[in-house]
User: What shape does this take?
Amino acid sequence: MVVAILYTVVSGFSTIVYTDVYQSLFMFVSFVIVAGMGFMVHLPDHFSVFLPGKTMMRSASGPGGSGLQTVLATKSEREVRSQTFLAMVLLSLRWAFSGGIAVMGIHYSMQHAGVVLDPERVVPVVISKVLPVGVKGIVLASLLAAALTTFDTTINSSSSYWTVDIYQALINPNASERQLLWHARLSSVFVMLAGLFLSLDVSTINRIWGFMAISMAGGLIWPFFFSWYWARFNALSCLLGVVTGYIAAFSVFIIVVKAWTQSLVLAVVLVATLPLIYLKWYVKLKDRSAGLCKEDLNASLLGSA
Assistant: This one.
């Protein structure tokens, strides 16, 4: 973590790209091996589930977070299409890896009577009990690489929100490159420290994953969705939607609860969406063309972060 934060803060986006490409070599080799091993495992038919609705909703919201950052780093719409297609192909391998681990874990528990795997410990059990020598090392290296790539990209994209979308756009439009650089570095350190602080309340993987995938997703999906399809949706409305989404998500995470229910998810979505409806009907905003604008493709929007 210390190494990742150092090269993220000091070198910025370009170094992250190069390190991610290098680290991805380990990841994709591991993904293909584990996915292939999982594909050869036979499970009963009731383990097969197809969820087309989830896939449709996920794709309709467009790229968000670090995905949007890579889109804005391209130089033309043609590069956006090429980059997006490549990302779809490569990222599909990680779910094949996850599926392979899950399948091998289920198969292991079925072969050993009385063994019921804790979902929180499936990965270490599969690595230690199922994977052969040699593959274990590759998988461990790939998991470390995956953690580093996720860490540095998330830190960098989060700092760019403050540096470009808030500080430069709303607070100091005439900020120099040096000022933007220091704000990017300081905000990167702040994001890391905030993450460490939040991790103190995380006792299981399911707790933090439920927070990110359910509460946070419910609070943030609409700002990202409207940014692609609503012409009146500008930076101010996106900022308001993201802030209210964060507040609702963190309230559910910290104050409420141990179990996720449909009503809680709907409450987070409602709180995040109401300010957007208010902006639509009661605030005079300057219209812009819908979708990805030509000026949005300028890589300089990322600033020095």
About this structure: The chain has two domains: 1-44+62-150, 203-285.
